[in-house]
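Re-run requested by the PI after the first attempt was lost when the workstation crashed. Everything re-entered from the original request form. Ligand of interest: adenosine-5'-diphosphate.
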Amino acid sequence: MAEIVLEGITKRYPDGSVAVRALDLTVADGEFVILVGPSGCGKSTTLNMIAGLEDITDGTLRIGGRVVNDRAPKDRDIAMVFQSYALYPHMTVRQNMGFALRLAKADKAVIAAKVEEAARILDLTEHLDRRPAHLSGGQRQRVAMGRAIVRDPKAFLMDEPLSNLDAKLRVQMRTQISRLQRRLGTTTVYVTHDQVEAMTLGDRVVVLRAGVVQQVGAPQQLYDA
Ligand code: ADP
Ligand code: ADP
C-alpha cells in the first residue's frame, strides 16, 4: 500500500509565516491527486514536506502506513519529477535515467534493464545515448519522468513538471502523464497553478488557498461548482 496521509500538517517558516495550516489529506493507493491554487498558496511547501525537502512543523505524515516525518528523502520511497531542466547536461539519457540507481549501488544489469524498460514505456529507446541538449523539450521531460520511474517508487511527486514547455507540448505531455500514471498505478501528487491541468489530469483536485484546503473533489464536481 502506498497511501499518503497528511494529518494536521502545518508549515511555519523561520520568519514566522505559516505556509500550510493544519492540512488533512489522504491520497489513496494508486490515486492521482492534483494540488492547485494561486501562487503562494502552499502547494510547493506541501509537496516538499511530503518529499522530505522541508521539515514539517506540526502534524503527522504517513507514506505506505509508516510515519515518515523524520525520515530523509531517500528513505521515503518517493520520486520527485521536476521541470525538465533538472537533467544533468553532461550525462546521456541512459546515464541520467540510471543515476539514482547507480547512487544506490544497484546491480549494473538491473540498472540497464530498468532504464531500457522505462525508455520503452516513454518512447525514448532511440535517444538513450544522446545528451539533453540534443533532445526536444518533450523528450527531456520524458527523461525526467524516466529518472523517477526506474526507482519503482511508492509515489510520484510532481511539481509543475510541464511549466517550461510550450502550449502544444503541454497538451501532448498531459496525455502522456495521465496514461503513464494509469499504466503504472503509482500514487501521484501533482502540483500546478494551471486550471486546465487540474481539470484534466487527476482523479481528484485539491484547491489550496492561503495554506488551507478550499475545495476537494473530482474534477467534474469542481467544474460544476
Ligand atoms: P506555491 O507553491 O503555492 O506557490 P509556496 O509553497 O511556494 O506556494 O509558498 C507558500 C507561502 O510560503 C508563500 O507565502 C511563500 O511566500 C512562503 N514561503 C515559501 N518559502 C518560504 C521560505 N523559505 N521562507 C519563508 N516563507 C516562505
Ligand atoms: P541531493 O544531492 O540533492 O541530495 P542526489 O541526486 O545526490 O540528491 O540523491 C540523493 C538521494 O536522493 C539518493 O539516495 C536518491 O535515492 C534520492 N533521489 C535521487 N533522485 C531522486 C528523485 N527524483 N526523487 C527523490 N529522491 C531522489
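Saved to the shared folder this time. The mean pLDDT is 93.
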